[in-house]
């Protein structure tokens, strides 16, 4: 485990300007803002991962939201997708609180780190393949730094799945050929020549399109998180109460 290495990586990610389209978009959004957040000073930079450096479970999304992570500077913080994800993490005992509003709200994740294959907010939430590939080295470095402790990963959505598999391979795990196909509830174990395997779990993305239509329900998300947490060797205490209702 190299906590300082991960901190240095996060700083380097936050200073990246490799993709002109993404740089222009994230900075334009930070200047013009949304009316509801007119009094905010937007982050307007690449958003690094969030969570402890000794995480056993990694959650991989798609990219920060224009008025979510691009505003707050923390993954899945301040948007509807984050509301769903952090509520579920809290429900299964992997987060200290059910909401994620801003970077200094006191939220802690227990044994979990959240990241993305693209660190800048993209127009229409759609990074190009070139932008995905340009950002991959950051994910590879993050995975290498987490390898001493990480034992499972939940990948949200097909885009994240397609972006993560090559990164897993570059970071030292063996990805089968043909590559495993994404699906909600998909599970695959990636062997490593010089260490323990990594359990990879597919989950529909926590986008509003999926959660509002019921394609992904809170119970479906909690089920994947529980299974992945068990594979990672985490034994979270599940929170009782109305928040658990799917």
From TrEMBL:
Residues 48-225 form the Uracil-DNA glycosylase-like domain. InterPro entries: UDG_Type-4/5 (IPR051536), UdgB-like (IPR044147), Uracil-DNA_glycosylase-like (IPR005122), Uracil-DNA_glycosylase-like_sf (IPR036895). The keyword GTP-binding does not apply. CDD domains: UDG-F5_TTUDGB_like (cd10031). It comes from the Bacteria. Keywords: 4Fe-4S, DNA damage, DNA repair, Hydrolase, Iron, Iron-sulfur, Metal-binding. Belongs to the uracil-DNA glycosylase (UDG) superfamily. Type 5 (UDGb) family. This is Type-5 uracil-DNA glycosylase. It comes from Streptomyces lusitanus.
């Amino acid at each position: 485990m190299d906590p300082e290495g991960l901190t240095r990586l996060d700083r380097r990610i936050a200073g990246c300007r490799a993709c002109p389209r993404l740089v222009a978009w994230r900075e334009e959004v930070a200047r013009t803002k949304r009316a509801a957040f007119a009094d905010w000073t937007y982050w307007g930079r690449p958003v690094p991962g969030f969570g402890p450096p000794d995480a056993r479970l990694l959650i991989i999304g798609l990219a920060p939201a224009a008025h979510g992570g691009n505003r707050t500077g923390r993954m899945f913080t301040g948007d509807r997708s984050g509301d769903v994800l952090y509520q579920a993490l809290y429900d299964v005992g992997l987060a200290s609180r059910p909401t994620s509003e801003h970077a200094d709200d006191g939220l802690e994740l227990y044994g979990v780190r959240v990241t993305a294959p693209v660190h800048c907010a993209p127009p229409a939430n759609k990074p190009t393949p070139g932008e995905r590939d340009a950002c991959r080295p950051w994910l590879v470095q993050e995975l290498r730094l987490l390898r001493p402790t990480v034992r499972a990963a939940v990948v949200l959505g097909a885009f994240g799945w397609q972006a993560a598999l090559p990164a897993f391979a570059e970071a030292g795990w063996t990805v089968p050929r043909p590559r495993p196909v994404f699906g909600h509830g998909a599970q695959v174990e990636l062997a490593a020549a010089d260490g323990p395997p990594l359990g990879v779990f597919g989950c529909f993305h926590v986008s509003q399109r999926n959660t509002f239509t019921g394609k992904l329900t809170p119970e479906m998300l909690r089920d994947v998180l529980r299974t992945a947490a068990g594979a990672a060797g985490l034994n979270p205490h599940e929170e009782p109460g109305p928040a658990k209702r799917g």
